[in-house]
Amino acid sequence: MQWGFDHKKTRSQFRELLGDIKGKKILDVGCGPGDDAEVFKEGTYIGIDISSNYINEANQSYGHIGQFFCTSIDDINDLNLSCVDVFILKGVLHHLSDTQIKSMMESFENIKNENAIVVTLDPVFFDNQGWCERVLAEMDRGEAVRHQEAYLQLIKPFCTNVETYRTHQFLPPYDRLLMKCHLV
Ligand SMILES: C[S@@+](CC[C@H](N)C(=O)[O-])C[C@H]1O[C@@H](n2cnc3c(N)ncnc32)[C@H](O)[C@@H]1O
């Protein structure tokens, strides 16, 4: 299903927003089966996910280039991480409640390095959106697809220099929001 929705332009824009990752510590929150470990192997890559199936799969395929932990974002402090330079939230915010996002952003404060960035990617609603795009976003497995302003309001109290970009996929018709910000 995810492959069917893969969008090259969004993927490369997301990668561009992360900038140079050489030597950086990257925390991929909601890493799924860890396929992105390959993309970020120039840095120190850590993936966490709530699904033990995904984490087992990730350890089998990419355990040699990354570290993977099965945990909910709610318990991230238990991992005793530190000095994270890049927080990746790719397709994750729309699976989390407002309360979860706020406490996750708070917990990032305790484990971030100086000048740490957060980069996110999620389906989005907005005014005058195409009908098909809206219906497909409503059908997403994540139950918390939001309007652009709602995503922004949730992360703004914890960040500066928030950049937002919307991408549009023609087939299947789909709209995504990318955000990049610096943690304060
Ligand atoms: C749409 S998938 C994205 C996977 C991966 N980031 C990617 O881009 O292919 C969302 C992921 O978030 C994970 N997830 C959902 N709720 C979570 C939570 N509370 N804590 C950690 N991971 C969570 C799911 O298990 C799933 O792997």
Q: Secondary-structure map with pairings?
A:
Blueprint: H1 8-18, E1 25-29, E2 44-49, H2 52-62, E3 66-70, E4 84-90, H3 98-111, E5 112-125, H4 131-138, E6 146-147, H5 148-155, E7 159-169, E8 174-183
Parallel strand pairs: 1-2, 1-4, 2-3, 4-5, 5-6
Antiparallel strand pairs: 5-8, 7-8
Residues 30-32, 48-51, 54, 72-73, 90-92, 95 line the site of S-adenosylmethionine.
Short description:
The chain is an alpha/beta fold. Helices cover 28% and strands 33% of the residues. The protein has five helices and eight strands.
Task: Record keyword descriptors for this entry.
184 residues; 8-stranded mixed beta sheet; binds S-adenosylmethionine
- CATH domain fold name: Rossmann fold
| CATH architecture classification | 3-Layer(aba) Sandwich
What is the CATH class?
A: Alpha Beta
Measured between the Cα atoms of the first and last residue, the distance is: 36 Å
The best one-word shape is globular
When the domains are counted, the total is: 1
Which structural category do the helix and sheet elements fall into?
Answer: alpha/beta
Order of helices and strands: HEEHEEHEHEHEE
The number of helical segments is 5
Q: How many β-strand runs?
A: 8
Bound compounds, please? S-adenosylmethionine
Q: Show unreliable segments.
A: none
User: How helical, in percent, are the residues?
Assistant: 25-40%
Share in β-strands? 25-35%
Rg (CA only): 16 Å
CATH superfamily: Vaccinia Virus protein VP39
Determine the oligomeric state from the structure: single chain
Largest sheet features:
8 strands, mixed
